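PROTEIN DESIGN WORKSHEET
SECTION A - STRUCTURE
LENGTH: 305
C-ALPHA CELLS:
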C-alpha cells in the first residue's frame, strides 16, 4: 500500500538546546501515512533527540511537532496509545519476565496484545524467562515485540535491530514490509545502511543536529557514484583518464590497476571506450549504495543532482 499523503508526523523548525549544546536545530520534515521513513546520522547527530521530542519525553527549545495532527505536549496520552515505540536503549527490570513486561505495556497503552503470540513464535522468544537471564539479542526481541504487539498505527523505532543476528535482522525487514502493506507508518533510525536501503521509502540525513537532505532512497543512490576497477595486461600512462568529465582515479596500485569513481556528468560509456584503447585483463564496476551516498554528505561532498 502506498502513502496517501496525509501527514502522520509533522515537525516545523524543531530546535532543542541542552545549555550551550545543540541537540537539533530548525528541523522540519513530514512523514506521511503508510510511509517508511529513515533518519540517518552517527551517534550524537540528533536522531534520538528528535524521537524524544516527537513523543514529548523532552520539550523543544523552539518550534513545534504534531503527531496524527495532535500536539505531543497536550495530547501525549492519546498519541502514545496509537504508537509502538522502541527506544535505542531499551531496558527493563531484570527480575521481570518477558510476560510481565508485555503485560505492563498492554495496560499502559490500553490496547490488547493482538500480535503477541505470533511475534513470540516468529522471533523464537520465550517470554516466561526473566529479563536478567536473557542475552542482549533476546532482550532486544522483547523490545521489538512490545513495540509491535498492540498493532499500532505508527511505529517509532530507534536502532531496532541492535544486537540481533543477521537472520533476525532479515526477519525484521520482512515485518516492516508487512506493516507497510497494512498501511502502517514507520519512523526509524538505524546505523545499518543496508537495513534502511531495504526498508525505507525516504530518508533524512542529519548532521550535527541539522537536516542536510531528505530524499527517496532510490534517488539518493542514483545521485551517488559508480565505482570501477580496471586491470590492464600491461602498464598504461597515468594520465589516461585525466580529461574525462566526472571520472576520477581514486587509487592505483601500479601502472596496470586503476580504481576509479564515476559521478555527476561522468559517463560509463566514455570510461569504457577510453580504457578499451589498451589491452584489458579485468574490468569490474559497481553502483554505489546508500552508505556511499551517506558518506558523501558527511565528507561535505553532496551528490550532484
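SECTION B - SEQUENCE
RESIDUE ASSIGNMENT:
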Amino acid at each position: 500500500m502506498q502513502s496517501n499523503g496525509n501527514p502522520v508526523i509533522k515537525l516545523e523548525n524543531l530546535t532543542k538546546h541542552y545549555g550551550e549544546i545543540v541537540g537539533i536545530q530548525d528541523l522540519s520534515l513530514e512523514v506521511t501515512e503508510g510511509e517508511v521513513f529513515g533518519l540517518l546520522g552517527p551517534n550524537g547527530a540528533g536522531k534520538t533527540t528528535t524521537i524524544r521530542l516527537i513523543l514529548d519525553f523532552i520539550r523543544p527549545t523552539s518550534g513545534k511537532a504534531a503527531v496524527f495532527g495532535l500536539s505531543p505536549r497536550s495530547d501525549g496520552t492519546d498519541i502514545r496509545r496509537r504508537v509502538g515505540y522502541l527506544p535505542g536503549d531499551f531496558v527493563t527490570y531484570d527480575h521481570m519476565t518477558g510476560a510481565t513486561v508485555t503485560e505492563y505495556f498492554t495496560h499502559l497503552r490500553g490496547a490488547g496484545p493482538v500480535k503477541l503470540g505470533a511475534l513470540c513464535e516468529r522471533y523464537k522468544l520465550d517470554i516466561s524467562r526473566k529479563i536478567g537471564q536473557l542475552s542482549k539479542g533476546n532482550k532486544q526481541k522483547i523490545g521489538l515485540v512490545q513495540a509491535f504487539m498492540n498493532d499500532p498505527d505508527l511505529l517509532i523505532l530507534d536502532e531496532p535491530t541492535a544486537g540481533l543476528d543477521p537472520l533476525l535482522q532479515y526477519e525484521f525487514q520482512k515485518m516492516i514490509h508487512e506493516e507497510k502493506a497494512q498501511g502502517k507508518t514507520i519512523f526509524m533510525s538505524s546505523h545499518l545502511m543496508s537495513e534502511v536501503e531495504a526498508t525505507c521509502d525516504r530518508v533524512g540525513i542529519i548532521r550535527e543536529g541539522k537536516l542536510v537532505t531528505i530524499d527517496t532512497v532510490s534517488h539518493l543512490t542514483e545521485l551517488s557514484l559508480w565505482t570501477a576497477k580496471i586491470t590492464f595486461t600491461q602498464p598504461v600512462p597515468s594520465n589516461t583518464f585525466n580529461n574525462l568529465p566526472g571520472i576520477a582515479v581514486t587509487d592505483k596500485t601500479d601502472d596496470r590497476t586503476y580504481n576509479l569513481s564515476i559521478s555527476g556528468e561522468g559517463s560509463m560509456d566514455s570510461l569504457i571506450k577510453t580504457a578499451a584503447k589498451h589491452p584489458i585483463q579485468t574490468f569490474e564496476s559497481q553502483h554505489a549504495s546508500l552508505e556511499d551516498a551517506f558518506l558523501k554528505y558527511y565528507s561535505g561532498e553532496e551528490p550532484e543532482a
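SECTION C - NOTES
The chain has ten helices and 13 strands.
Residues 166-181 form the longest helix (16 residues).
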